[in-house]
Write a structure and sequence with these properties.
Helix content is 8%, strand content 50%. It has 2 helices and 36 strands. Strands 2-9-8-4-6 form a 5-stranded mixed sheet, with no helix packed on it. A 5-stranded mixed sheet has the order 11-18-17-13-15, with no helix packed on it. It has a 5-stranded mixed sheet with strand order 20-27-26-22-24, with no helix packed on it. The N terminus and C terminus are likely disordered. It has 4 domains: 81 residues, Immunoglobulins (Immunoglobulin-like); 91 residues, Immunoglobulins (Immunoglobulin-like, Sandwich), CATH 2.60.40; 84 residues, Sandwich (Immunoglobulin-like); 116 residues, Immunoglobulin-like (Sandwich), CATH 2.60.40.10. By secondary structure, it is mostly beta strands.
Length: 432
């Protein structure tokens, strides 16, 4: 029994000493061995195209780590946002539809505080310009409503038309830096004035021509309607103005007989009144003239207006007489009345001694007179006394000459003239 007890005491002592030595060894290790460094490695930068939406990035680490995003833009995400050891994160974003590159910074930090960052760069978009499902616009001849088309663009844009009759309510817009924005354009075509269809083009140009799209525009020709009123006129020989009413729904032109007619215009659009001047007819024969109005190119419509003008007449002497009581020894007065359609070139009287017409006939030249009734008084002076004279009257214009049908014969008073008396009468005229 004593022996066993002694053995147990020795075992207990051994165990106690061993535990004490082990404890000393652990304490020495904790104070003398440095902690192991955390490992973290990622790419320095990531380049993405404008249309790229996902990009994988490798993370090398032997500990746990967390992800955060600095800056960035709407729609940019990273997953997962944490991990342990070696792993991979995925950068996700929408396509860049703007005309500006964009940048963000991703930060990865270990649990022990080790940090590394890398930059994400996404390139700017190409110029984007897309018309929404339409390539042409068709208009009637007389459009009552506008038509529209829509397009999307991610930059500035301009609109031009190949023809002036195509009009857009907007000709420019957009921003130099923008997302892909939709725009709606209202288009109207001017009323066409011919029967020939026409075409044009609307050009949408993005960023000063970096990209263009176009829409074709067509318009049908007009069905021509044309009439005139009245279609015939009777015109005085002296000439006069007439009004012709043109009723038309398109462009028209007119032609007329030069030298007979004059018109205030030779072309027009739509309905309007035309002032037509009929020139005087100084011929003894009647005449006619025609004005022709034409509209249309493919389906030509014409209307004519006829002008019938009466003949001119020569002047008419309505009276030629000796003024009662005007005859003296050396003088006499006469009255000449006439009517004329046109201004006269000459009018007056001729006087001569009876039996000596060829040698003593004298003519009073007169200035032109306006058309109408004229009464003229002529006074012959310096006549021989006791001498018989004969007198006729005349009126002349472009049409002809009228001569009095009667010849006036009279004898001056006094005594028979001697050789010293004035043999040549002097004539003068008076207008009442």
């Amino acid at each position: 029994m004593k022996t066993n007890r002694f053995i147990n005491i020795k075992v207990a002592l051994f165990i106690a000493v061993s535990a004490f030595m082990a404890a000393c060894t652990i304490e020495d290790a904790d104070t003398s061995v440095e902690p192991k460094a955390e490992k973290l490695s990622v790419e320095e930068s990531v380049q993405m195209t404008a249309t790229q939406t996902d990009q994988a990035v490798s993370v090398k680490s032997d500990v746990g780590w967390d992800v955060s995003i600095e800056g960035g833009w709407s729609g940019l995400t990273v997953s997962p946002m944490s991990g342990t050891g070696d792993g991979q994160i995925t950068i996700h974003t929408d396509a860049n539809t703007t005309r500006q590159s964009r940048e963000a910074t991703v930060s990865i930090t270990t649990k022990g505080g080790v940090n590394q960052k890398f930059v994400i760069n996404q390139a700017l978009s190409d110029v984007l310009l897309d018309i929404d499902g339409i390539s042409s616009l068709d208009f009637e001849a007389s459009p009552e409503e506008s038509k529209t088309f829509s397009f999307t663009c991610n930059t500035t844009w301009q609109i031009t038309t190949s023809e002036s009759w195509i009009r857009c309510d907007k000709t420019q817009g957009g921003e130099a830096i923008s997302t892909k924005v939709g725009s709606t354009i209202s288009v109207i075509a001017d009323e066409i004035q011919t029967d020939v269809p026409r075409t044009g083009v609307i050009v949408i140009s993005a960023e000063n021509g970096a990209k263009t799209q176009q829409i074709s525009v067509s318009q049908e020709g007009k069905k021509i309607e044309l009439s005139v009123s009245p279609s015939a006129f009777e015109v005085f020989a002296t000439g006069e103005q007439k009004i012709v009413q043109i009723n038309c729904n398109a462009d028209w032109t007119l032609k007329y007989d030069n030298g007979i007619l004059l018109c205030d215009t030779t072309a027009g659009t739509g309905s309007r009144d035309i002032i037509v001047t009929c020139l005087p007819n100084k011929s003894i024969n009647p005449r006619s003239a025609t004005m022709t109005i034409t509209s249309g190119i493919q389906d030509i419509k014409t209307q004519t207006v006829t002008f019938t003008q009466s003949a001119a007449t020569v002047p008419e002497l309505t009276a030629f007489s000796l003024v009662d009581g005007s005859v003296t020894k050396n003088e006499a007065e006469f009255v000449l009345d006439f009517t004329t359609m046109f201004s006269i070139d000459d009018y007056g009287i001729q006087i001569w001694e009876e039996g000596y017409e060829s040698s003593t006939k004298k003519t009073l030249q007169a200035q032109n007179s306006e058309s109408g009734i004229n009464e003229l008084k002529f006074k012959a002076t310096g006549l021989k006394s006791m001498t018989t004279y004969q007198v006729t009257g005349f009126v002349k214009n472009d049409v002809g000459t009228a001569t009095s049908t009667n010849t006036i014969t009279f004898t001056t008073g006094g005594v028979k003239p001697s050789g010293d008396d004035n043999p040549t009468p002097a004539l003068s005229r008076k207008k009442k």
